[in-house]
Amino acid sequence: ASDVYKRQQYDSRWGGFGKAPKFPAPHNLLFLLHYSLLENEQEALEMAEHTLTAMAHGGMNDQIGGGFSRYSTDEKWLVPHFEKMLYDNALLAIAYLEAYHIKKRELYADTARRTLDYVLRELTGPSGQFYCGQDADSEGIEGKYYFFSPEEIMSVLGDGDGEEFCRIYDITASGNFEGRSIPNLIGQSELPWRADDIRLNRIYNYRRNRTLLHRDDKVILSWNSWMMIALSLIHISEPTRH
Length: 242
Hints:
The structure is a single chain. The longest helix has 18 residues, at 86-103. By secondary structure, this protein is an alpha+beta fold. It is built from 9 helices and 6 strands, in the order H-H-H-E-E-H-H-E-E-E-H-H-H-E-H. It has helices at residues 2-9, 26-39, 42-57, 86-103, 106-122, 150-157, 159-169, 198-210, 221-237; strands at residues 69-72, 80-85, 133-134, 137-138, 141-142, 215-216. A hairpin with a 7-residue loop joins strand 1 (69-72) and strand 2 (80-85). It is globular.
């Protein structure tokens, strides 16, 4: 019955289930991944894969610093509610790692790594505890931390690298949301920059110095437990190094 419900709600164009706003619902994706293995059900795997790929390419996934926002306000995962929560990111990392174990697509492993790296950088306390999340607003404007203009990118990267970044990540003068640009890879055929690309790190550092995000520093045991599970899975998914 659960599988029938998901099939009826599935968005075959953009991935995900139901209409906007769309939530990532990693527990549903994990169900579909496991069901596809247990029942040899290809359609369940395709629904999960399409959704995971679409979310990874969207603006809901922070293309610069890693980590996912809570949900997308539109059907194609472009414009999120920009609040980031620990439990979402832990469970999504688990879902992407499960998909990687099944399909061995580097996109899934890379998305999980970037997500977990975000948590380790920005939601981790001095004793190794994991904090709840980060707010959506900066200086009273939701999403301001994440918006860019071509001029800003050029000022950080210079014309050549700046033009390449704007082309790949959809940063335009007219913007893709209310005159502003949310970095995304929707419909993009070019490969994104690697997470360790020094140019991406320059944009990340510029963004962190430009404006601040408030962090909710509560520590919740169950959310910390999910994060520890996700971290254990990333280690067993890494190839053996000699």
